[in-house]
Amino acid sequence: MSFQDPVIVIGHRGAAGLLPENTLPSFRRAWKSGVSAVELDVYTLEGRLLVIHDDTLDRTTNGQGPVMARAVAELRALDAGNGEPIPFLEEVTAELPESTGINIELKGPGTAAPVARFLAGQRRLDVLVSAFDHAELQRFHNLAPDIPAAPLFGSWKPAAWGIAEGVSARFINLSRRTASKRRIAQARQRGLGTLIYTVNDLAEATQLVSWGAAGLFTDFPDRITPDALAASIPD
């Protein structure tokens, strides 16, 4: 159950299709489903790393307005679903067994340095750090070159291979619409694994893995499991 798995199944924001995303019960549910790793999103505020996806509170909590406009104590008092608070990153890492991989997405501004500092004291973790903000990911890589990185792409950019090389990427994380058999093959030729998001259909997941994708992100880790993928792919 790590980024070393033959097929890497990553619980997207925990088990976002089953329980409120980016909450401790969601991460626990993903782990119990047998995922290789979980994915989460971080913002930094008052020196703390908070796990939440959006830059506003409206969709995932009972609060309103920008995340960065609130104090940490205010954010922690909000309901992020089923009475759960917005967790701190250290709460998530403490919750999961050491064998579980964690993909940390640098979501908020200025997250590279605090995430690098946090991970410096967490060498036991199997971590992958990713971002759509490739400049922020580069800053992280400069601070923590030994921690695997993966640039995220929602649409294809000709500069993608150079961006990946600049952060010594282990993986490149591609959206479903960006992934193709040819692009996955090109990544493998460059020594890169491809992780595809967000895949909630087993037939689609099977096809992507048959094309050579290293793994995928899913909201339904009860439905798309390593065992289900292995059983659906011909020998």
- By CATH, the superfamily comes out as Phosphatidylinositol (PI) phosphodiesterase
Report low-confidence residues grouped into runs of 5 or more. Answer: none
- What share of the residues does DSSP label as strand, in percent? 15-25%
Separate helix tally: 9
In short:
This protein is an alpha/beta fold. The protein is built from 9 helices and 9 strands.
Describe this structure in words.
Helix 4 (112-120) packs parallel to helix 5 (134-143). The chain has helices at 24-32, 72-76, 89-95, 112-120, 134-143, 160-166, 181-189, 202-210, 226-232; strands at 8-12, 37-45, 48-51, 101-106, 126-131, 149-153, 171-175, 193-197, 215-218. The protein has an 8-stranded parallel barrel with strand order 1-2-4-5-6-7-8-9, surrounded by 6 helices. It is globular. 48% of the residues are buried. The protein is α/β, with parallel strands linked by helices. The longest helix has 10 residues, at 134-143. The protein starts with 7 loop residues before the first strand and ends with a helix. 31% of the residues lie in helices and 21% in strands. It has one domain (8-232): TIM Barrel, CATH 3.20.20.
Question: Which key features would you list for this structure?
Answer:
235 residues; globular; single chain; TIM Barrel; 8-stranded parallel barrel
Topology summary:
Elements: E1 8-12, H1 24-32, E2 37-45, E3 48-51, H2 72-76, H3 89-95, E4 101-106, H4 112-120, E5 126-131, H5 134-143, E6 149-153, H6 160-166, E7 171-175, H7 181-189, E8 193-197, H8 202-210, E9 215-218, H9 226-232
Parallel strand pairs: 1-2, 1-9, 2-4, 4-5, 5-6, 6-7, 7-8, 8-9
Antiparallel strand pairs: 2-3
Helix pairs in contact: 4-5
